[in-house]
């Protein structure tokens, strides 16, 4: 039994050539997660631009749907506001952690998505950033960046997600950015 924390308040984002490669990497990262005794990822989502130019995100159903909603909120600042959640006040919490991220890194992710690439974002713990980053590179990511989400922000966003879920504002079928 692992005694390592399982807060999953860090975000690792890898940029892939296209949505098919990002979705394949998402499946493979889930399998990899299951084979690693000391790694327990929190969730993942693929972000891309569809044929109509609309930004989409597809969250893994393997992970807890509330973590999927959390990851959707945390991606708002990284995608340059490309993902707009149903309840905007909660997104403001996610934006507060952007201060610790290099603006050029966030812009690079948003720009890559706008240009037809796809990104795979994975929630993990701080000690998992390096192995997750290495795995994303092995799976074909052109660029991988790890982001620290302040614990207070992560806790506030998670609380807001749980509140919205208890009010029926989000459900497994209707998550934050859908």
UniProtKB/TrEMBL annotation:
<dbReference type="InterPro" id="IPR009200">
    <property type="entry name" value="DUF1269_membrane"/>
</dbReference>
<protein>
    <recommendedName>
        <fullName>DUF1269 domain-containing protein</fullName>
    </recommendedName>
</protein>
<keyword id="KW-0812">Transmembrane</keyword>
<keyword id="KW-1133">Transmembrane helix</keyword>
<keyword id="KW-0472">Membrane</keyword>
<feature type="transmembrane region" description="Helical">
    <location>
        <begin position="69"/>
        <end position="98"/>
    </location>
</feature>
<dbReference type="Pfam" id="PF06897">
    <property type="entry name" value="DUF1269"/>
</dbReference>
